[in-house]
Structure formats: C-alpha cells, structure tokens
Amino acid sequence: MAPRQSKTAKRNKSQNGTRSIEPEVYSDSRAMNLLEDQPKPKQKSTVKKMSKLAVKKQQAKIRLYGAKNGKDYSEDQLKIPALNRAIVPGVKAKRGKKGKKFVADNDSLTLNRLVKSINDKYDEVNESKLEKARRLEEIRELKRQEIERKEQEKVDKLEGKKKELRSKASVARSARRKNAKARRAEDDDGDDESPKRKKKKVSFA
C-alpha cells in the first residue's frame, strides 16, 4: 500500500502545476537594456489585403462609373421619396427646424411681447414687486390683444370665404337665367316659323 501524502505535499504539488515561468531576460537589467535598443516588431494590420482579382474588378468599376468620394449617404440624407408612395404635385414637405416662428416686420404687437418676456430672468434680479406686477400685466395685455387679433383674422377669413361663395353663386345664377332666357327666345322663334299644326278630328258614324 502506497504511503499517505500529507496536506502540505498535496498543496505544493497543486501549486507547482499552476506556477508561471518568466524568462530571465526581464529579471536581468542588462538584458532589458539590450532589448530596448532593438527595433520593435511591427504589428500585423487588421485590414485584409485585397486579392488581384478584386483589385481588377474595382479598377474596372472606377473606369465605368467613376471613383467614389468615400462618403456613403443614406436615403434620409438624400431626401429620396419612399417607394410605393404617391407624391402630390405642388405640395412640398416642410423641412428645417420645427417650431420656428417668424415675426412679420409690421407686427409690433408680437415684437413688443417678445421683448418684454425675453428679459424676464435679468429683470428679476433688481426689480420690486410692484414693477414685476406691472411688467407681467403689460405682457398679459399684449397676449390678450394678440389673441383678439387672431380671432378677428379668423372671422375676416370666414367672411371673405362666404362673400366669395356668394359672388360665385350669384354669377352662376345670373348665367343660368341668361341661358334660360336665350333658350326660351329660341323656342318662341321656332314656333312662329313652323306652320300651325291642325288638330285631329275624329268623327263617329
């Protein structure tokens, strides 16, 4: 029967198997200095070299279609319309920044409101409660005037549309009347020219 191994011997045996071996070059300073003078080996490039056949094909494509500038654009960047989608003529899709609103040159009301409301955070530093209340009241008044103006514009637009429809209807009505008069006159002229029809008489024996 084999002799029984102690725990220490077992531990040493397992440690010996996992021990790493370092070359003496790294522990010797003189050898390290000699290694530093040596040129470092170049790393292999990760880019795969093209075969001769692939290069020939690429050159042929360049001769046919021209060389690419190295930039590929997506369909969104090129603004290409989606397939199987009707393009309405005369209707342009809005592009650019969303929520951008331009103030008209003669719109002093909106301009004043913007000027008063933009400097809010700077005015708050050194203004009394009374001044702040007055300024906020002015802004509210300007906003109210803007809303009233918008409502008036809506009403004017509606009235203009109604007037336009009425004028179109009156023009069409007068045209119909004129056509009816002309038709009636033609019918009257036709009756005068043709000989009067004799009434059929039926006699019983």
Automatic annotation (TrEMBL):
InterPro entries: Loc1
GO CC list: nucleolus; preribosome, large subunit precursor
Segments crossing the lipid bilayer: none
Protein name per its UniProtKB record: 60S ribosomal subunit assembly/export protein LOC1
Entry similarity comment: Belongs to the LOC1 family.
Primary localization class, coarse: nucleus
Region (Disordered): 1-52, 143-205
Signal peptide: none
Gene: LOC1_1
PANTHER family for this protein: 60S RIBOSOMAL SUBUNIT ASSEMBLY/EXPORT PROTEIN LOC1, 60S RIBOSOMAL SUBUNIT ASSEMBLY_EXPORT PROTEIN LOC1
Molecular functions per Gene Ontology: mRNA binding
Keyword tRNA-binding: no
Domain of life: Eukaryota
Listed GO biological process terms: intracellular mRNA localization; mRNA transport; ribosomal large subunit biogenesis
Compositionally biased residues, Basic and acidic residues: 143-162
Subcellular location: Nucleus, Nucleolus
Native source species: Candida viswanathii
Keywords from the named record: Coiled coil, mRNA transport, Nucleus, Ribosome biogenesis, Transport
Basic residues biased stretches: 41-52, 196-205
